[in-house]
Amino acid sequence: MEKLLTVLIQTSPLPSHPSTALLEALFRSFDRVDGLKEAHIIILADGCECEEETSSTENFKHGTVSPETRANYKQHLQLLQEKIVNRQAPFQPLKNGTIQLVKLPYRHGSARAIAAAFNMQPSIISTPYILIGQHDNFFVRDVAYLASLLRYMEDESWLQCVHFPSTATLNYVTKVKRRYQLDISKCCVGYNGGSFIPLVFWYGRTHISRTTYYTDFILRQCPDLQVCDHLEELFGTVQLNELNKIKKSSEDEFEDEFRRVHKRYSNYVYFDNDTPEEQMEVLYHMSGRKVRAATNSTPSEQEMPNNTDDAQKSNTRFNPHPNSFTSARRSIASVPGLEFVPSASGSSSKPPKKFKQNCFHCGKKGHSFKFCPSIQDETDMPSIDVLQI
Q: How many domains is the chain built from?
């Protein structure tokens, strides 16, 4: 595996530092993926910018932090390096796998950090395939198909990039048809009892791609990356806009045109089960900016739902509005050593600003799922799935 796959995990300053609990949870989740810890794993640590001593404003997304946070981040990276060197659980590669911490000297931002990793000399990425993920995207379902997927990609040159399922891609064919009026049902490709479903947008979630997909296509399409750039915001928007232009074609013309245009992007989500009602998300996004080191060893009450009976119904799905774009459940993670920042876990009765997109629940424009007026009470909401990570 170490000769086939490099795993690139991006990390940056977080409120939970100097604790290594978030990355520990991520590496524990790697155990769900057969063979993943046999690969060459790189933790790519971005640099950060420091605010003035008198400033109280921090922007973790843009890497602008206080002197205290920067010091905590530096200590976090030192602790992380020690645990990697000492092969302290869960930072334990398997067979010939390796784990390496690479520190960038200054703030790059997500997209530029990826570009920097590919451009480093001597090269740190020498495998034909790469898995790219974030420090707060965990595997929450078993993945037994990694090796077979890489073998399949080796034989099928049309398949350039494969995303693991997340809540954003559950019931994806129906979601895309409802939200964008694009019928991609005839463009799916069956494989091993499951299917590859073409994506219409580049999602910022964990995925596997050919290394050349990045070096020869993605990064060449975005040559002038800025510090605040994210590939899903740049590349994803371009892809969606291009595919949206062909939706007024006739049914036969649309399928041919979609295949022609999508061939340029060649990104898919793979479900190992071909029955939509039984498909499950593989990834869970916790949002590292909204958690901090726990003050005690037990999960924070803010992490746990009120109705624990409903929480255990892990297969209970939301029965959506007829115009809904999603069938996703609500999930919440319980991670040892972490708790939600109080201001991040509270809810507001009013939206902070006007919502410009369509509601995932009712399909109407102007409000989000959270503030949908058609949801009258908590019984109309999906049940909560508690994920122990």
A: 2
